Request: fold
Amino acid sequence: PRVSKSDWGVNSIDRFILAGLDKAGLAPAPEADRRALARRAALDLTGLPPTPEEVEAFVADQDPKAYEKLIDRYLASPRWGEHRGRYWLDAARYADTHGLHFDNYREMWPYRDWVIAAFNQNQRFDQFTIEQIAGDLLPNPTESQLIATGFQRCNMTTNEGGTIDEENLALYASDRVQTMGWVYLGLTLNCSQCHDHKFDPLSQGDYYSMAAFFRNTTQAPKDGNVKDSGPILVIPTEADRPRWDALPEEIAAASSKRNEARGSARPAFEQWLASATPAMLEEGSIAEKIIAHFPLNEGRGGELAARLPAGRRGSAPKAIAWASGGKFGPAPVIKKETAADLGDLANFARHEPFSVAAWVRPANDGVSGSVVARMDVGAGHRGWDLLVEGRNLAFHLVDAWPDNAIKAGTQRPALNPGQWSHVVATYDGGGKAAGVKFYVNGKEAPARVLSDKLKADAETRSSTPLRLGQRSTGTVFEEGQVQDLRIFAKRLSATEAGRLQQIPTLHAALAAEAKRNPQQVESLFAHYLATRDAAWQDLDRAVAKLEGERDTIKARSPVTHIQEEKKDTPAMANILMRGAYDQVGEQVVAAPPEVLHDLPAGAPANRLGLARWLVDPANPLTARVTVNRFWQEIFGTGIVATPDDFGIMGAAPSHPELLDWLALTFIESGWDVKGLFKTILLSSTYRQLALTSPEKSEKDPDNRLLSRGPRFRMDAEMIRDAALAASATLSTRMGGPGTKPYQPENVWEVVGMGNARYEQDKGENLYRRSVYHYWKRMAPPASLEIFNATNREVSCVKRDRTNTPLQALVTLNDPQYIEAARRLAELALKQAGGNDESALDFVARRILSRPLREQETGLLDSSRLSLLSHYQGKPEDAAALLGVGEASPDKTLHSPVLAAWTMVCNQLMNLDEVLNK
Reply:
């Protein structure tokens, strides 16, 4: 566009801005001084203030390209990806918990680390998009591309028993459509879920055609309240990766040899079967290290005879009620007055592996109680138990509950009321909940860790006897039935668990003789192989060893949630009338909204086709919406002030031609994110002084015309990270599980259920960047939430920006800020060597990125002297202040002096100039 001042501006951005200023009768502001410019650029590109050394080097650099070199240096910093990634994680609604109800841990942090790495590598934004929407559908997807699909798995999920599976799946798809609409299209697609959009040309059919792209996945409707609800990807460490990569081929080869041996063993099996007896069915490894066996089929009275140890008898306080229809004859019905004492058996230490197996029949849905236990409730629940919780199995090993114990449970309902199931729980002796496995009816039931706090010196042996149906006291496995209870002083293998489950079937098959069906013959054949065929057993052990190695690596490896498409199924969905999951209407195929362009030629009608459609240069929205959000990150408000709504009800663009130019430049550059930011930061528009004037305040109150440089309150993470950086306590370690720094007491307890205890980290994790915070949706980091951090229950492409007294209470009182101020004070006092003026200058340059003015020096020195007088008169106040935080204060410094300087640093950290960019 034509402009009045041909001598102002360095690139095309400036001409668009100047044209708007000309129209409003305004002139651009002068360029900010170098110190202000260095601070602004550092904060915008890295989220951190510049070091004093960086500022002074820039001020002294007379190279005409000094500013460009500064920008390049910040763009090359790993801090760039952490800062840029933080905005994206808001949009992706990334969190470390499932949300809703229990809000339990979800292991997703590899996706967060992938986002940061992608920005640091300056991955093309079109590829960044394709991998997140459809990385799993790319040819031979890499581990990185699979991790990227976690973008779709960041939505909230549930395991609430009262929810309906089809409703959950509809909600998950709805979240993904809404997120994609806000993040990529700037469209409120969610407003057409129940009816045609009231304002934009989007029909309800368009909505469900978009939902169809996300309804064709293998994700389960419930998350199991586990950290790894499938589909997941195991990410082995670099040390484990060679073995992890080699194991699938080795397991396949070993399994093939085992199958060959099975085929060649058939003739010998036929000979064995001709002379087999019932006693032979319980030979082999299932007879090894068995320390207790109670058949529980007496049929009368209150005594229970054990086969092992021979002659041992258990007893109940009253006569037991016996029910017909057991797996081995009459079965005891457990009631409060007939829970039986089985004697001094199965008293295991923390390091001892053991297994418990039994046939179990719960009477009613929702009943919870111990099937068998050696647990002293009065002694902190010391001991162990195998229990039923509703339809799930669980296992405890306890020194003192809950702070010195492990608990594991089945991920999904494993039992059916009124039906017999064979259950096995095994413990490997390692002291970790991950060392517990469950088998139900001969098959492994995936386990989840519910508590993992057993200490290395824990004492788990109990003085109470082994009991059937109840711990030493308390809840009873009411009306439940148990038979064939066996306890082993070893960890049973999957094969052994399957054999135990087969015992009733094998007895029936052996007795059938001429009437045996093929299934019974195969059951006897499997038993023969496991007990009589040494060659097959060697091969089976080889397979089990390899599978155990795989399971061990998996147990110690991080996992992340990924997306997975159903095989050979077209992406389709039904229109849900009024958005109700059970009001099913017309079926639609996956397709973009009719008002927009079609899928690219040759693109499949699945998520991969959708991803390519999003980044097709013909798409009028993706590039515009993306550059608008990047502009918003720099200037506080986008060219379109409603980044999630480019529709009729959204805000009109302040500079529509500039938006078009930026979008086109972005595409033509190869979707170069760093290049786009560099272009914006090099502009004269960006470099303007942030100071306003009466005329500009009247004509451009919100700086929509950009008649001055950007100035607004920083986001929560930037404020915290800046305080840590100023005090030289900020850790630069990247990646890994979420950190748990200082937090007020009982924040989680108000909203938490199974994971209500917040366990604060120690050491370095207290001082890592805020992007690595553990993000609990029902209770986000409290000190960040007060500064408008989102809970990430849904996508957020623009945070609220407020200035409240509560925020001041955080920066003035939160241990993170008090400790940072004290650490900075210690640095200043040591550096200054007793020179107060030098110490003040040191502090100012680290916090303000500039030296103090004379008047400021006088005010701060006066405040320091007043504080020093207070702390000299009240040393207990100084001690209390210096005791805040985990790091101990420097004992070589005089406490009242250090306390006074701590408060001076804290005052500076609370200036508007510091909290604003």
Summary: The first helix runs from residue 12 to 24. Residues 813-915 form one domain.
